[in-house]
Amino acid sequence: MFKSNNLLLGMVYGLIPPVLAWLIFAVWLKNDGMMMDKPAMPYLIAIGINLVLLRFSARAYLDKTSNGIMIATFACTLLIFILKIYR
Hints:
The protein is mainly alpha-helical. Helix content is 77%, strand content 0%. The chain starts with 6 loop residues before the first helix and ends with a helix.
């Protein structure tokens, strides 16, 4: 999976888990009427998955890819908490 050392590719890798979490939990399950007690939990799980991806890319010595994943993780985390505060 991690073969090229590229910042933009790392950002794409870092955005995949939060986007999938949003698609699954906010769109698909909300239409079924299923309500969760903790609505931020799927996004926090996606951030945890990003941290695992960050660990694998760091062990492969792909510094630019690791930086891209880290940037995407911090941006998604900040966006989630800002949206949860103002909702």
